[in-house]
Amino acid sequence: MPNQVVVCAHRGASGTHPENTIPAFVEAAALGCEMVEFDVRATADGHLVILHDETVDRTTDGTGKIWQLSFAETRRLNADAGHDAHAGVQIPTLDETLDCLPGGMQLNMHVYPGPSDGDAIIDQVCQTIKVRNLYATAFIAGSDEVMQLVINTDAKVRRCLLGSQHRVEIYAQLAKQMGCCNVQPLHRIVSKEFCDKAHRLGLFIHPFYADDEAEMTRLIECGVDGILTNYPQRLIRLRKTLS
C-alpha cells in the first residue's frame, strides 16, 4: 500500500534546512520521517563527522578536504550553507547526530572513507552501532569496498550496497551476494521489473532521490519500499493522498 512507503529524509530535511546538520535532522524527526540518511566522514585526527562532500567548501565558510582538517578546525566552521536562519550551525559529529534522533528511527548511514582511513572509519561506525545497540535500526550504505570492510569488521551490521548507475542488470544480485538487506538505486533506473527482481531477492528498495510528486508517484507505482527525498514533507503529504 502507498501509505506504507517509508519516508527517508535525505541528509535530513535538507530542502528547507542546512544539509547534514542537527536542525535538518530534528526537522526530519518532527515531520515524522521513518528514516533519515546522512553521510559519515573522518577528520585528520579521526573524529567522525557528518559531511557529504570530500571538502567543506560547498556547505561551510571554510575550505579544504575533511581528512586534512582537524576536528577543532571543523568546529569553527559555519555550516549553514546559506540558510541564514541557522547561521553558525556546526558540522555535527556522529554521536551528536544519533543523540538528537528518536529511538526506533531507521538510520541510513552512508560512510565515505578517505584515502587511507577506511578501516578506521568502518571500525568506529561499527563499534558505535554495537555500543548503542543499533543493529535493528541502523545500516551502513556504501561502495563495494565499504561493504567488504563492514563484513570483515562486524557482519552483524546491516548493509546497503550503492553504485547502481552503471550496473543496473547485476546491481540487486551483487547486493544479495554481499549479504545486504537494502538497495538504494538511482531513481532513474527504477522500474517495476527492477523492484520485482529485488523483492524476489528479499531486498528493501529505497531509491535516491525524488523531490517532485510526479517522480515520487512513479516510484511508488513501481513498487519501491521507501524514497529518499530532500523535501520529506512533500512525500508525507503525497502518501496521505494515496492511502
Give an overview of the whole structure:
- With 243 residues, this protein is an alpha/beta fold.
- It has one domain (2-242): TIM Barrel (Alpha-Beta Barrel), CATH 3.20.20.190.
- 35% of the residues lie in helices and 16% in strands.
- It has nine helices and nine strands.
- It has helices spanning 22-31, 71-75, 94-100, 118-131, 144-153, 168-177, 192-200, 213-222, 232-242, and strands at 6-10, 35-42, 48-50, 106-111, 138-142, 158-161, 182-183, 204-205, 226-229.
- Strands 1, 2, 3, 4, 5, 6, 7, 8 and 9 form a nine-stranded mixed β-sheet that branches.
- Helix 6 (168-177) links the parallel strand 6 and strand 7 (182-183).
- Helix 4 (118-131) crosses helix 5 (144-153).
- The radius of gyration is 17 Å and the shape is globular.
- The N and C termini lie close together (7 Å).
Number of structural units classed as domains = 1
Tally of strands? 9
Tally of alpha and pi helices? 9
Shape by Cα distribution:
globular
Which structural category do the helix and sheet elements fall into? alpha/beta
As a whole number of angstroms, the C-alpha radius of gyration is: 17 Å
Largest sheet: 9 strands, mixed
- Architecture (CATH level 2) name: Alpha-Beta Barrel
CATH class category name:
Alpha Beta
Cα distance spanning the termini: 7 Å
Query: How much of the polypeptide forms β-strand, as a percent range?
Result: 15-25%
Average the pLDDT over all residues and give the rounded result: 96
* CATH superfamily placement: Phosphatidylinositol (PI) phosphodiesterase
Helicity level, as a percent range?
25-40%
